[in-house]
Known about the structure:
Elements: H1 18-26, E1 30-31, E2 35-41, E3 46-48, H2 64-67, E4 73-77, E5 88-95, H3 96-102, H4 106-109, E6 111-116, H5 119-122, H6 124-171, H7 185-203, H8 207-231, E7 236-239, E8 244-248, H9 250-256, E9 266-267, H10 268-271, H11 276-291, E10 295-297, E11 300-302, H12 304-308, E12 328-331, E13 334-343, E14 352-359, H13 361-406, H14 410-435, E15 447-450, H15 451-464, E16 471-476, E17 482-485, H16 487-504, E18 509-517, E19 521-528, H17 558-568, E20 572-577, E21 583-590, H18 597-604
Parallel strand pairs: 16-18
Antiparallel strand pairs: 1-2, 2-3, 2-6, 4-5, 5-6, 7-8, 7-14, 8-9, 10-11, 12-13, 13-14, 15-17, 18-19, 19-21, 20-21
Amino acid sequence: MDHIRYGTxxxxxxxxxxxxxxxxxxxxIRFGKTGHVMLIDHRGIVMSCPILPTGxxxxxxxxxxxxxxxxxxxxxxxxxxxxGQSTSLIGFAPVPEISRATSSDLGTGxxxxxxWEASDELFAPIRHFLTWMAVFSLIAVGLITSLGxxxxxRIVMPVRRLQAAAQLIGRGELRxxxxxxxxxxxQDLADELNRMNRQLVAAFAGLTDQVAIKTQQVESLLxxxxxxxxxxxxxxxxxDQAEQVQYINRVGRNSFQAILDSTKSIPLFxxxxxxxxxxxxxxxxxxxxxSGEDITTASGVEDTAAVNRARDPLAPVMETxxxxxxxxxxxxxxxxxxQWFHLAGRNQGxxxxxxxxxxxxxxxxxxxxxxxxxxxxxxxxxxxxIGHELNNPLFGILGLGEAIGEEAxxxxxxIYARDILQHGRRMAAIIRDFTGVTTRETLDQWQPxxxxxxxxxxxxxxxxxxxxxxxxxxxxxxxxxxxxxxxxQLRQAFTNLLMNAIQAMKGRGSLRLSTSxxxxxxxxxxxxxxxxIPKQHLSKIFDPFFTTKGQGEGSGLGLTVARRIIKKFGGxxxxxxxxxxxxxxxxxxxxxPLLPPTQEASCTESTxxxxxxxxxxx
Length: 618
């Protein structure tokens, strides 16, 4: 074209030899022994290659599209492009300058570089590295094996020998010393084990003979125990946790016709022929004794601690209860008192429950007869006492009645009438004190009463009706203490106690009265300076009609009535006395809280409706 690119001037045709033009630039590029660069076009025709001739098409048609894209890269090809069929790693890149020089369209006339190296040469460093790694691994395995052998020879085997020797020492079977020559701590440990074994052998020398001797002693003791139990005159049965009889002594075998076979256990209730209700009750008691619970007996609740407490199970128990309310069972014609006891197992053995029987057939019969005799005797004494106390005033009334019938003097008749009235009042007082009941008791309501004031009024009543010149009263009160009671009856109780003390001193001496407070009660103490009460009489002083005074001096009901009144008001009374040192009467009554002013006034004004008569004291 011309210089202004307007018209065609002519045509220039140039033929270029690609190999001669490009080979000087490509052939010198070599790496390794086989690595080189070749130039191909988009059809796979070789333009320049140190190995393949120019113009030859690549033998593997599948390789051509893999190495002729328009972007550079690497590809893992199924062949090497030089006739080999091994997998090859090929680098490629387009050559745009040459492509534009040879053809205006890069897509249809592009040239590409092709970088290739033989697989054997390419992977030779990796194979070399792996070979050295394998060699080093074998050497490491050899070193580890050698160290393991050394450790097993110097550490593991001696430790195992020490372990086996320790087990033999524990069983007492080590006969040869431990021989370990390692020159380290293991050898020292072996020497210590040898020394310990020698000490153990020395310490346990003769132990077998001692065990045999002790075994003989235990067997002899067991035999002696069986002989002792067989000699005991009461049946004894030992039962395990399953109610199976483990032992029964000779008396038990004879009493219950039991034959104990050493090869077979016998149930407890096959030996004891009792009715189903008693059997169920005994089985319940057995379960309670086995589990440590309280045992409910016929006479109430028995503490399991008493069952388990170490004591002689054959010792007789003093019983004062009703013979029909004791822990007894009827087996055939005989009646037995029984007692459970607990026997702890030894050496991880099973606990056992013991059952001791005591034949109380004759004892129960005699005791029932004795109780009946005591009741009859008490009734006779009571009847005789009432008759004696009533006969005296009754004879007086009869005599005065006869005198009135023969007396003409009216003044003397009036005197006889007053005497008859006095004897009648005495008889009424005796009957009232004996019954302990007043006609208006059911109508009266308990009310707050000042205890110290009622005590002072009782003293005033007594001193006003007798010669009190020889008496000295000492009062030490805690204050104005209120109790809930009937004022006249409380005063009656205090009057009886004071009268008893004054009569004991024969009207001369000192009388100390004191009150003291506890958390919920008030304690009243009356101490006289009399001769005291003999020890043999202390247990009978509250019995009705018991008196140490002469005939006509007392009815023996004063303390009985006082005690009945105090207990009715929720209190208690006790007597402490030493012969020759006086007597102390201690009365305890429950207190009531402090009262408001209105109730305090009513409490202050609570006076008796009638002045109580001193009851003849014991």
